[in-house]
Amino acid sequence: MTATLEVALARERRAVEAGLRALLAGERGVPPRLRRAMAHSLFGGGKRLRPVLLLWAYDACLDGGRAPGVTRRASLDAACALELIHTYSLIHDDLPAMDDDVLRRGRPTCHVAFDEPTAILAGDALQALAFGVLARLGPGATGAAALIARAAGPAGMVGGQQDDLDAEGVAPCPALIRRIQRRKTGALLAAALGAGGALAGASGPRVRRLLAAGDILGQAFQQADDLLDACGSAAVAGKSVGKDAVAGKMTWVRLEGPDRARRRAARNGRSGLRRLRDAVPPGSAAERLLALAAGLWDRDR
Length: 301
What we know:
- There is one protein chain.
- With 301 residues, this protein is mainly alpha-helical.
- It has one domain: Farnesyl Diphosphate Synthase, CATH 1.10.600.10.
- It has 14 helices and 2 strands.
- α2 (32-42) crosses α6.
- The longest helix has 28 residues, at 204-231.
- It is globular, with a radius of gyration of 18 Å.
């Protein structure tokens, strides 16, 4: 990652962080323990990847010269809503009834730091807050809100989590691995790109190309996660490792081994990057988006 990209990414993350803090502070009447649990997971050092992808897809599609659906400021609220949904999903994913993780981003998971009922409620609260934010954005954000809702819902992320649970201990199957990765991880990442384009006023075909690119990039991102679980360290990754093998998770690493799985992640990542390049108008904003996307599968955390 170049120094220029790092500076731009740090600036964008600060904007997302400030937006998230303002949204949480603006909620009145929240029980103090619930507020602390929400903040524990929301401000625990996340990469803010999905909101930045949304914002930079918005910027890249504006280069196409179309009138935006909403302002850049409103798109920041949408990006924050996406991060609220992502954080809720992590809280629930870490629960004892799901993956039973005790470490997330180098810190105790929400149910460990507080308790399981409070963690469930914190996740519920973040999801409700997210859709409240999206509902306030007005008619220009309707399409983006629908994309995010579908990606997060029963045919997307939540359905992928169910598939993941159902597949534990089952013999690896390529079709099922793809379905789990597309729904559990790829759907929300694709929605970040598609929603950014929709908020910028991109045409329907362009939004669909963004979604297709995000789908493949999301699979590569999940494949990199699976490799980190199999081959990484908790100290570097900031979360528990080695749990996929114990649980018998449906992954490419389990099916074909780390070396082939690593080549698969790189192959999918390059394919997704080509699709993303074809999906956005050329320009400096597009190059910045592509540079960020290039790091989705080649990472150590």
